[in-house]
Amino acid sequence: MAPAARAGAEARVADMTWLVTGGAGYIGAHVVRALRDADITPVVVDDLSSGHRAFVPEGVTFVRGSVLDGELLERTFAEHDVDGVIHVAGFKYAGVSVQRPLHTYAQNVTATATLLAAMADAGVGRIVFSSSAAVYGTPDVDLVTEATPKHPESPYGESKLIGEWLLADQGRAAGLRHTSLRYFNVVGSGTEEIRDTSPHNLFPLVFDALLDGRTPRINGNDYPTPDGTCVRDYIHVADLALSHVAAARRLAADEPVEPVYNLGSGDGVSVGDIMRTVAEVTGIDFEPEVAARRPGDPARIVASGELAARDLDWSMRHSLRDMVSSAWEARRGA
């Protein structure tokens, strides 16, 4: 794009309003702040089933309601002249989804279809979808790429893959411009005002155990990895939020995008590394209890972020120590 054309496109983007579904949640609230910092007006829709009203910054429009409510979405699009959507809302607990498949599909598939229908009726033609690396299941490769076969192993992973299909089908049928961002383990905090409150994620579980005087637990230390513990992608939530905004900007400027991007570290860190870093950052000396392996847990799942680095300003700007220390400060300030 020529410099003059790019400048014009950037000016148009700065005047835009983007709806963030799930914008009162841990990830969504960071996306809202990143949009605001980029001079893009965010509007939040969240039913507060797992989000927190206090996570939405003062001055940002907040609409309490479910993405399953098509009429509410239509009113929101009309009242706020929405130009695009960053769809973060969803039921994100893979393990629980096995016990609650119908709930998972309602929240992640039916809600996405409802959102796309409301967008079509309102003439909103751009969406960034918060997908998941759960679409890959247990890949038998050292480094996951966007071309790695998809074999989801939970209703959650299946629902995210179906969400990607819905976007692609609507793109073919109605010209929807879209991209989906797949990522693994999101940690850290970009501000002490927001923290991960999930009852299922590693960092909250470890911090809660330490603050309660309990010893954190890990599942297995006999994997074929350097320290015997599982190796995973852990990425900082603020880095993730920046790439959501970069994707929105690219869509708004009518620049080409891939249908999906992995937001991966390229090398990963082990659960053992995390535990050692937590002990250093918190000043609480502990040796984690070692429980049995969890069935189906692979030794290593790490993704390449090469395509996202090329197009979406993706990079690992934060070290593991940054991730742990920022999350710990947010937890202690709660």
Automatic annotation (TrEMBL):
SUPFAM superfamilies: NAD(P)-binding Rossmann-fold domains. Keywords: Carbohydrate metabolism, Isomerase, NAD. Pathway: Carbohydrate metabolism; galactose metabolism. Its cofactor is NAD(+). Pfam families: Epimerase. Residues 18-264 form the NAD-dependent epimerase/dehydratase domain. InterPro entries: Epimerase_deHydtase, NAD(P)-bd_dom_sf, UDP_G4E. Its EC number is 5.1.3.2. It catalyses: UDP-alpha-D-glucose = UDP-alpha-D-galactose. The keyword NAD applies. It comes from the Bacteria. Belongs to the NAD(P)-dependent epimerase/dehydratase family. This is UDP-glucose 4-epimerase.
